[in-house]
Fold:
Amino acid sequence: MRQPRVAVIGSLNMDVVVEAPRQPKMGETISGDNVHFIPGGKGANQAVAAARLGAQTSMIGSLGRDAFGDSLDKAMQQEGIQVNTIKHVENVPTGIASILLAEGDNQIIVVAGANAHTSPADVDLHADTVKAADIVLLQLEIPIETVVYAAKLAKEAGKMVILNPAPAQQLPDELFGYVDVMTPNESELYLLTETAHEGAKADQVATLPVAMKALHAKGVKHVITTLGSIGSAYLMDGETFGTIASHKVQVVDTTGAGDSYNAGLAYALASGQTIPEAVAFASVVSALAVTKLGAQNGMPTMKDVLAFQSK
Structure:
């Protein structure tokens, strides 16, 4: 069987993580305990996760011509990801997420940098890569017009389009009709459908299908909602509703949970699995990802997944 082919179109960031004893007040300088430079960005995370599972993975996105950009490019190459589709932008910094970890909580400032320069023209330039893929995987950390253009191009080429609608935001109506599988979490689902969710936790069985059907009515073929530690739910063709429970693991870091889930879903669907099978597979991938520190560091290999499934 040939390798599943996944094209990821999205963001690449360097996460600059500072550990400190507490949050400084405005205008105050304090000493930190440690600093980490960790490859990140939802697009890059999903590409790494797909590649680790064994997918032939390409990444369309943008980096600055700087040290962070060089480091991220090298990290992607080491994962076996096609990087000649990544643009290096002059006089624009590589995107970063500045993360302060203090007192068991975090503060994050994201600077899009070069990610804001990923354009429809870049997608056009690498249209052959999109058309060669089985699955095109998108998120919302690049300009929305680029996301819409990429989804339309992929749909017209007969490719399956997965959209992870994060970070949460309203979307143009046109986009929904280009999406085969949308993977919101609960808050994203209710934002996109403007569905009331008072008491959603208490009556999830009733509220989830209603909201998911509302998203299907906008044009999305299949809706898969991630429910954190509970698991996930799926709605196929607006009719068949089901749930998959999460796996009990020792949680270390949930940062890469959503990205690994989406990559697992893409890999499974590209391999010919059904929606329920793919959701079950993605749940295992996501469970393994949270057992290690760091988003990309925690992404499991297929060997890891098979070992977990055999227990």
